[in-house]
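Reminder to self: tokens first, then the designed residues, so the page reads top to bottom the way the pipeline ran.
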């Protein structure tokens, strides 16, 4: 734990004086007393400013240190050590002792089920040995591991091994955050891949023996990703071996360590019986994401942690393209837009708002956010839209050519686009610097055969940024005539001023506009459409995203009216629209499933807050549930046949076509349950041969208060499987009806299988409650107190996971004064906990200002 919380500023960046030529590490592994011997060849950079020699180090016991073989006595500080060194190249040697078995924070070298593993991003390497732990210091690593465990892995290529030891060498210079080591009793699911330049690569997915039957899908996904990156970006893999290891205790999804990716087991292990289609798609995306980092992150890394979006935004964009290619670009675009609207816009609207490239931080772990990742990816997508596909790939080729082997910046990145395309991106750069979601107010006019769109942009102020400048926003627009024919195909207009008018000439009649097609920019469009326009677009828009969006905003307004009127009959026009969608044979089941999904309870609360009203979560829950009942009754005549039509007779495959059918089928099952008293859901639960259908049926039964017996059956069937048990915990809380959610979470937190130090299990109980809006936001504050109790308990054990989960309180401004006060009281209680970690302290203090 850090002794002093210090704010780091982007503007204080100073190039390192001491560069690392090469590093040789020896690990003598032992749970409570691992010895780490480091031999580091340093050289001064004559171009960098003079700086005292300083190495980062935390929780290390220094045994001895030498410079060029001569013992030295460094000064140990809170952050590391300083030492007098000669102003010429020299060799630093140090031996330290660490205790991986006692490392519950899961950062640095730690143990998970008897296996050693590491997590060094962002600043974990300093818990392994003294080192200049900053991404712009890159060195060539050689590693020797000594342990009796059978499998000993590190980065790069294997060099030699014998009984009780193994040696690895990574020829690619890398920053310390990409270092990795694994030692354990593991088995491999192996395969191979030949790259486009003829390199034979051994592929291994390392797991514990009982998990071998969950490896095939991940391996196939890896090979798909390797092929795709060659074909679309021209980038091939660059080592003889690519290892992936599955670990049960892990703070995040996965980590792109060079040649040795380490994965949360939930982000890689899957099979038909234990994993849902959503799991399969997520796993495929994460495997691709970490693999793609080999070029965007590892070969080209970040100069400093302020540039995190340089690797994360770009790599998320690349994994989104890959998923779109496999599962359909339209469906994927809708899913990504939902993440932006439901999560990123919320972050932007609350106390935690920050730019895609932040200007300061206390704990960088707190900035692995949906803004840096997903909004960062949106900025890459906008650049691509602005310069076109050819310009985009020319810019990327520039980026790979110029910056390979370097630690780069957003400035470097944008310069590649400008040099490749001649475009001036100085205004576009504001997207990286300015927090908040721009709001576009659109009005239109038709006169003398000319249609004009007037667009005004405004970005609300955010913490530390009271005044906002206009952004460079690509807005994709299409115009339809009243028969639904497209008279102006998708056109990109570029908004750069606060207010701007765009005209379309030579039209016979007033067209129907389709604005922000494909969600061309991460903005909110504010427009009061004339009566019937959204219903028209829901039927006729040629842009699949806007067609879905028209239905979505119609649904939202229908539900908001019901909430305001305290119930009442469901709008007939909306029901007719949905009926048409369900009967439209040109729509894929995946698209139909997205279109019949009602806006979430959180969506509705956000919409009310945006309209200046104060949402009541329990009331929203009640009204939305009643809307579902009415929908089921109104569509009763078509539901059974439609659901039967989604039956799959082919053998199970986790592909897009089958997943789409199962998604639609389960959505229909949820509606049918209003009509058949749970008969069909019970039957599906009893006969399902895959987790997608089993857990969906269980969830539906639980929502209808009929799931208790099924939950017990499920437990008996799956109690031996940690990943499935996470689902068992989570779904009982997610599906719990408002009043019971806190009680159920409390009961499950006492369950013998609630291993709260495991981050996945903690999230499946405590995180699941924060995701049940009506349960978490009980007016008596019981949900807030329960979550705060657990966060206070977890903080000394695992600050990083605690700090991430504190952000569940970031909706506080949305609620009434009673709830807000209760939330603030719990945050203050967390803040005042003695010995609170720096990670959590930073989050709480941002939330409380
Ligand atoms: Zn990443």
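Designed residues (849 positions):
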């Amino acid at each position: 734990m850090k002794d002093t919380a210090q704010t780091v500023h982007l503007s204080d960046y100073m190039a390192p004086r001491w560069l690392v030529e090469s590093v040789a590490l020896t690990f003598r592994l032992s749970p409570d007393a691992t010895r780490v011997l480091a031999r580091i060849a340093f050289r001064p950079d004559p171009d960098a400013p003079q700086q005292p020699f300083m190495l980062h180090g935390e929780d290390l016991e220094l045994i001895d240190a030498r410079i060029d073989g001569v013992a030295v006595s460094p000064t140990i500080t809170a952050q590391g050590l300083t030492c007098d060194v000669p102003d010429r190249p020299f060799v630093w040697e140090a031996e330290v002792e660490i205790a991986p078995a006692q490392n519950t924070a899961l950062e640095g070298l730690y143990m998970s089920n008897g296996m050693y593993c590491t997590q060094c991003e962002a600043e974990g390497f300093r818990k392994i040995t003294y080192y200049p732990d900053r991404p712009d210091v890159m060195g060539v690593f050689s590693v020797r591991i000594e342990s009796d465990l059978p499998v000993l892995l590190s980065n790069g290529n294997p060099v030699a091994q014998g009984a009780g030891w193994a040696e690895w060498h990574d020829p690619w210079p890398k920053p310390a955050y990409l270092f990795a080591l694994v030692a354990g009793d593991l088995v491999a699911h192996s395969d191979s891949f030949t790259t486009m330049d003829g390199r034979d690569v051994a592929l291994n997915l390392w797991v514990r023996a009982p998990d071998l039957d969950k490896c095939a899908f991940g391996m196939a996904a890896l090979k798909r990703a390797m092929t795709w990156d060659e074909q679309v970006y021209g980038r091939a893999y660059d080592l003889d071996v690519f290892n992936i290891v599955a670990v049960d205790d892990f703070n995040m999804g996965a980590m792109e360590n060079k040649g040795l990716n380490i994965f949360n087991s939930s982000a890689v292990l899957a099979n038909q019986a234990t994993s849902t289609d959503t799991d399969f798609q997520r796993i495929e995306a994460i495997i691709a994401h970490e693999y793609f980092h080999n070029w965007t992150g590892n070969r080209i890394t970040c100069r400093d942690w302020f540039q995190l979006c340089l690797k994360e935004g770009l790599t998320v964009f690349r994994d989104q393209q890959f998923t779109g290619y496999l599962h359909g670009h339209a469906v994927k675009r809708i899913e990504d837009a939902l993440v932006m609207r439901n999560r990123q816009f919320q972050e932007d609207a609350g106390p935690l708002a920050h730019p895609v490239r932040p200007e300061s931080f206390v704990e960088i772990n707190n900035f692995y956010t949906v803004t840096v990742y997903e909004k960062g990816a949106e900025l890459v997508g906008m650049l691509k839209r602005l310069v076109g596909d050819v310009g985009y790939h020319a810019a990327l080729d520039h980026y790979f050519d110029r910056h390979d082997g370097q630690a780069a910046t957003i400035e470097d990145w944008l310069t590649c686009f400008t040099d490749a395309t001649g475009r001036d991106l100085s205004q576009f750069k504001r997207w990286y610097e300015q927090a908040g979601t721009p709001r576009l107010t659109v009005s239109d006019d038709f006169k003398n055969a000319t249609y004009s769109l007037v667009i005004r942009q405004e970005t609300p102020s955010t913490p530390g940024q009271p005044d906002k400048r206009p952004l460079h926003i690509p807005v994709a627009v299409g115009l339809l005539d009243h028969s639904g024919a497209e008279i102006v195909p998708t056109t990109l207009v570029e908004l750069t001023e606060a207010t701007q008018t765009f005209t379309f000439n030579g039209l016979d009649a007033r067209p129907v506009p389709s604005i922000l097609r494909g969600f061309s920019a991460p903005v909110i469009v504010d427009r009061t459409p004339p009566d019937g326009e959204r219903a028209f677009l829901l039927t006729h828009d040629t842009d699949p995203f806007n067609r879905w969006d028209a239905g979505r905003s119609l649904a939202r307004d229908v539900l908001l009216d019901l909430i305001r009127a305290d119930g009442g009959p469901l709008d007939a026009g909306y029901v007719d629209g949905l009926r048409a969608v369900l009967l439209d044979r040109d729509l894929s089941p995946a698209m139909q499933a997205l279109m019949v999904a009602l806006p979430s309870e959180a969506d509705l609360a956000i919409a009310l807050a945006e309209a200046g009203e104060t949402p009541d979560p329990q009331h929203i829950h009640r009204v939305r549930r009643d809307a579902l009942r009415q929908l089921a009754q109104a569509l009763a005549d078509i539901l059974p046949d439609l659901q039967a039509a989604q039956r799959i007779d082919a053998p199970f495959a986790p592909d897009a076509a089958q997943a789409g059918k199962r998604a639609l089928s389960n959505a229909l099952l949820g509606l049918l349950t209003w009509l058949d008293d749970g008969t069909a859901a019970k039957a599906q639960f009893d006969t399902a041969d895959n987790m997608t259908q089993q857990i969906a049926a269980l969830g539906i039964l639980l929502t209808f208060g009929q799931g208790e017996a099924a939950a017990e059956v499920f437990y008996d069937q799956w109690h031996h499987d940690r990943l499935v048990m996470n689902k068992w915990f989570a779904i009982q809380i997610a599906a719990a009806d408002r009043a019971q959610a806190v009680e159920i979470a409390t009961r499950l937190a006492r369950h013998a299988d609630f291993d709260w130090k495991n981050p996945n299990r903690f999230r499946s109980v405590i995180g699941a409650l924060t995701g049940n809006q009506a349960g978490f936001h009980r007016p008596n504050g019981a949900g807030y107190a329960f979550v705060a109790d657990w966060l206070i308990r977890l903080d000394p054990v695992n600050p990083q996971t605690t700090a991430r989960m504190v952000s569940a309180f970031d909706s506080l401004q949305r609620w009434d004064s009673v709830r807000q006060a209760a939330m603030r009281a719990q945050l203050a209680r967390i803040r005042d906990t003695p010995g609170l970690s720096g990670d959590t302290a930073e989050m709480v203090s941002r939330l409380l200002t």
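The first strand starts at residue 8 and ends at 9.
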